[in-house]
Specification:
The structure is a single chain. The chain is of the alpha/beta class and about 450 residues long. The protein folds into 2 domains: about 220 residues, Spore Coat Polysaccharide Biosynthesis Protein SpsA, Chain A, CATH 3.90.550; about 230 residues, 3-Layer(aba) Sandwich (Rossmann fold). About 40% of the residues lie in helices and about 20% in strands. It has a 7-stranded mixed sheet with strand order 2-1-3-10-5-11-8, with helices on both faces. A 7-stranded mixed sheet has the order 16-15-14-17-18-20-19. A 3-stranded antiparallel sheet has the order 4-12-13. Helix 1 links the parallel strand 1 and strand 2. The longest helix is centred in the middle third of the chain and has 24 residues. It is globular, with a radius of gyration of 23 Å. The chain starts with a strand and ends in a 5-residue tail after the last strand.
């Protein structure tokens, strides 16, 4: 009987075309050169990476896979062809055979950071058990045991997941999912390896492929980020750090205990609580009003993920000072709207009264002395913009709510939402994910479509 390999890819919207082309050639190569194996492909859209990875593991178990190859959506396998040297051709795609021949619990190739100091994404641990990135000089010339193999490309024996049991991956509050699974596996007696003779590329957002040959051109030369996008990331991280410290103060716990409290709250309160679902029903105000502290803890964790950070950075750049009055609908802890208010804009915040994240936001605005905020709906035709981040999909009465948002916008006002880019259909709280119906509503209102995220209210005909 052939061994089974499940290839799992957590995927954002907007995958680099270089990666799509490379992975297609990889799939073609598998069909021709890996005839001793059966392959299964599992691609999961992600807004929360840990959830996508857990879903992938579940699929791998369902198809009785022997191995799981985790690949991220921003890599290049055939780096020689990508760098203009096609002499090695498709031989690069035999990297998986070499990983399989090692026959170890967890193993992967080398790839390099897209920013920072351009280090290999491989970690060891210090005496206190804290992970740190190794230097390129420590890579060696053959397979070596490590504390952490980068999760962008990781081959894992399914028996690891069998022994660990769910949930295999948790929110990335303290550690990324790669650090988490490696630590759990090693604690359970498994071993983690890296093969430094194998290398894959890492695609930057400007479509530059980072490899060992060019990484120094893009690595950080001092203690500060350089470049517009990296500056935005730095500013975003500062914003999120302040959010975390305020949330810890509001909940009466230390910053260090935020992760612990989150995990405990997951069990006690949950955001997919069967008890809450049965008592109040999904998509109801009562459901969200009774989630308790775990709702706030979850949102603090969620905003640290890459996609929400990029969304926040983009909005803060896009909303110029001339757009003075706006609304953050379904705001929760309101991290974007709060920052806009700090920058002098008048912001209306709308969410479910009594929900922990919303009550925290009220407290936070008062703590920081923000008087240019209103908790409630604005007058009609008064808004320059309304941002709806991770909110429309939670609404059963989405049409009535969007109608009210539309009425609140002045002519020329922008509706800014990430709804069309969400791919997390498996989240049971997402009670509305019908993108064609949303676009039909946009057409019905005769809004100007700037992109799949920005819609402008036009002068009535």
């Amino acid at each position: 009987m052939k061994e089974r390999i499940c290839i799992g890819i957590p995927c954002y919207a907007g995958v680099p075309p270089e990666t799509l082309e490379d992975y297609m050639r990889f799939a073609f190569h598998l069909g021709r050169r890996y005839t001793d194996y059966e392959f299964f492909l599992c691609i999961k859209g992600k807004s929360e990476q840990f959830r996508a990875r857990n879903n992938i593991v579940e699929v791998a178990l369902q198809v009785a896979a022997d191995w799981l190859l985790m690949m991220d959506d921003d890599h290049i396998i055939d780096i020689n062809e990508s760098s203009g040297d096609p002499s090695k051709g498709a031989e690069a795609y035999d990297f998986l055979k070499q990983l399989l021949e090692h026959d170890v619990d967890i193993v992967g190739p080398v790839y390099y950071q897209r920013g920072g100091h351009g280090k290999p994404v491989i970690m060891d641990e210090n005496e206190q058990g804290d992970p740190f990135f190794i230097s390129e000089l420590d890579l060696g010339e053959s397979i070596q045991e490590r504390a952490v193999q980068g999760g962008g490309c990781m081959l894992i024996k399914m028996k690891v997941f069998d022994k660990l049991g769910p949930p295999w991956f948790e929110p990335e509050f303290t550690y990324g999912t790669d650090v988490q699974i490696c630590k759990k596996a090693r604690d359970a007696g498994f071993k983690v390896y890296n093969d430094p003779t194998l290398e894959i590329g890492h695609v930057m957002n400007d479509r530059v492929v980072i490899t060992s040959r060019n990484k120094n051109q893009f690595s950080r030369k001092d203690d500060f980020f350089t470049g517009t996008e990296q500056e935005l990331s730095w500013k975003t991280d500062n914003i999120l750090y302040k959010l975390k410290t305020d949330a810890a103060e509001y909940l009466g716990i230390s910053e260090r205990d935020m992760d612990k409290a989150f995990n405990e709250g997951f069990e006690k309160y949950g955001w997919m609580s069967l008890e809450l679902e049965k008592k109040y029903g999904l998509g109801t105000r009562e459901y969200y009003a009774h989630m308790g502290p775990a709702q706030l803890q979850r949102q603090v964790v969620f905003h640290h993920a890459a996609f929400p950070k990029l969304t926040m950075a983009t909005l803060l750049e896009e909303l110029k000072p001339t757009k003075l009055v706006g609304m953050d609908f379904g705001c929760g802890c309101g991290v974007v709207g709060f920052e806009l208010a700090k920058r002098g804009k008048h912001v209306y915040f709308v969410d479910v009264d009594g929900a922990c994240a919303y009550e925290f936001l009220k407290w936070r605005c008062k703590k920081h002395g923000l008087t240019n905020v209103t908790f409630g709906w604005p007058e009609p035709d008064s808004l320059h913009y309304c941002i709806c981040l991770d909110s429309i999909e939670h609404l059963k009465d989405w049409r009535e709510t969007l109608d009210r948002i539309y009425d609140s916008l002045a002519v020329g006002g922008n509706l800014m939402t990430n709804f069309m880019r969400l791919r997390d259909d498996s989240n049971i709280e997402h009670v509305f994910m019908e993108r064609p119906e949303f676009m039909a509503w946009v057409a019905e209102k005769d809004m100007l479509i700037v992109s799949d995220c920005v819609f402008i209210k036009k002068e009535p005909r």
